[in-house]
Amino acid sequence: MLKAGLSMFDRFNRHIHYLRISVTDRCNLACTYCMPEGHVAKLPREDILSFEQIAELTRTAVELGFDKVRLTGGEPLMRKGIVDLVRMLAAAGGINDFAMTTNGILLAQHAKPLREAGLHRLNISCDTLDPQRFSAISRGGRLEDLLSGIDAAQAAGFVKIKLNCVIEQSPEEPDAVMVSRFGAQRGFEVRYIRRMDTAKGSFWRVLGGDGGHCQICNRLRVSSDGRIFPCLFSDLHTKVSELGPRQAILAALAIKPESGRQSDNQFYRLGG
Ligand code: SAM
Ligand code: SF4
After folding, report:
1. DSSP classification of residue 60
2. What is the pTM of this model?
3. CA 196 to ligand 2 center in whole angstroms
4. Domain extent listing, the chain
């Protein structure tokens, strides 16, 4: 339903104005809670939305009243030319809150260009500050790369940086306590995300954020191959390739469920 003033409301009268775009299903880490072990099938390259298609979709969403956009992945910094995409989207205007969720590994080289290209905010994933635990959780990642990335983000002038910390059960776990202390020292807000499993339907609200609170859900998610999912915990989706951007957005809005139950969606594809 499109109401006056170009605000979009769904069947449950939720104001939908937040578009999360996964720009790649590729990643330079393989976190145990996110990726299955071993070979992971990748989406065919020819199906991945081009920058022009992402820009057109975003422009259409902004025309329809969306004002918040987040780039995610996979690892968004693994998408070649990501800074150019950020520049294109920022230059088009209309986005009041333009953010990215990243594992931070490549931020040392990308933070400054991203900021200059017009990105407003960063959420950086950080599950522990113990190098061995970091390597185990991410299957081979180096904590020092993440820490250099975080330093670079601050040096580039990003403010209101948030840390995303995946927990098993509670923010009192030793890894999460380390992240909490680090966040307090550096002035970062920490969001604790209890490990979810879309297939099993285990679904939790994000501590310190709005995610997972169905009654106030305000988002649509776009996969890197241009499917629009109105709910992470539902397989319902529309396809930009079939309907075009405008109808794909409107149709996704029309089928957005009150809450999801279970789905085949994978975090590394849809970006959490
Ligand atoms: N690669 C980027 C990163 O890690 O920040 C962006 C994509 S990642 C899928 C987005 C967020 O989803 C991350 O904060 C990650 O910790 C979270 N995530 C991944 N798998 C999850 C799971 N099973 N349960 C809860 N959160 C998860
Ligand atoms: Fe990659 Fe992010 Fe998933 Fe970790 S959480 S495997 S960094 S997509």
Report:
1. H
2. 0.96
3. 13
4. 13-26+46-265
**pLDDT for 147-178, tens place per residue?**
999 999 999 999 999 999 999 999 999 999 99
Secondary structure of 8-37 as H, E, C letters: EECCCCCECCEEEEECCCCCCCCCCCCCCC
Q: Is 267 in the pocket of ligand 2 (CB under 6 A)?
A: yes
How far, rounded to the nearest angstrom, does the alpha carbon of residue 138 sit from its chain's CA centroid? 17
Query: How far is residue 123's CA from residue 77's CA, in Å, rounded to a whole number?
Result: 13
Query: Angle CA(34)–CA(36)–CA(41) in degrees, nearest 5?
Result: 105
* The two three-digit tokens of residue 142, written as one number: 């180096």
Of the CATH numbers 3.40.50.150, 3.30.310.50, 3.20.20.70, 3.10.20.30, which one belongs to the domain with range 13-26+46-265? 3.20.20.70
Cα separation, 200 vs 13, whole angstroms: 28
- Residue that has been written with the tokens 């601050």 in this structure: 154
State both tokens at 233.
Answer: 């915990």
33 CA closest ligand 1 atom index: 23
What separation in Å is there between the alpha carbon of 40 and the centre of ligand 2?
Answer: 13
